[in-house]
Amino acid sequence: MESNMTDLEINKLCAEAMGYELNLDAPVHHDGTMWNPLRYDAQAMALEDWLIEHGAILTYGLSLGGNQRVMWFLPVGQDGGAWMWFIKDKQARRRAICLCVAKMQQNINLCE
Length: 112
Known about the structure:
Helices cover 42% and strands 14% of the residues. It has 112 residues and is α+β, with helices and mostly antiparallel strands.
């Protein structure tokens, strides 16, 4: 799944999902560190926990040919089926997690 969101929009939606207020001029996490789950493993893993706690289904495996790692994501309440990313490295995995959270948070914001 590709996204037309900027990294800043993704970070902002991820912060909202975690309940953090994010100043876009200086995106600082509640504990004083920079908030950038696209870059920091620990923040991305916290977002992965958020996905699981909110009922999303995450599955990791190999592509049909067995030559690429894949992440499948089935968001809660989505009719469009699963989203899939090829995960070639840690950066791609963090991005996939962040995009999942951002998309779910976008849907939550639309329902409010």
